[in-house]
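Reopening this ticket.

The earlier resolution said the output was attached, but the attachment link was broken on my side. Pasting everything inline this time so it's all in one place.
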Amino acid sequence: MNPHPAIAVVVSNTLAGIGLRSILEKAAPTADIELFASFREFEAADPERFFHFFVSAQLFVAHAPFFRAYRHKTIILSSGDPRLAGTGMHCLDVHGNEEQIVAALLRLQHSAHRPEHARPAAVPVPQLLSEREIEVLTLIAEGLMNKQIAQRLDIGLTTVISHRRNLMEKLGIRSVAGLVVYALAAGYASMDTL
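Inline output:
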């Protein structure tokens, strides 16, 4: 059995699928993300093994009975269409920037705490973070900019930049959105601070 949760991205637009897979890899680094260009490919890949399905609105409409049967796993990739929000299905508006999409993913994850959606254990930190790095990480998760962090912690701007660079190196994360996801998963920040 695969120890990592598997997530399916089912979209006919390859570029959109690759972009979402990239965001999901940052947001859920322990998950295996698989991309499918058609419902037929997805169906042949044993849908039962997937923790979640991210599906385009067009494919959802074309195969609604199937996806409704997996309501707890399905997330419709919408463009803010209010008709989809009224379906009772989980929806993700894909017209936001990366940080907005990651925040929406975290809200979806936060609202989906059921036994079948047990969170995998946090990824072990390759090196321990210093107390100051944790402070910087927490403030990054709160949305503060480098200059604001420097003022809050009464340290130099270059020191903040060094701590941010060290955090990214130690954690293997390459974006602010990824740092926010890590801070939430590790308990250094809460959804209330977003």
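Reporter confirms the inline version is readable. Residues 113-126 have pLDDT under 50 and may be disordered. The chain is about 50% helix and 15% strand.
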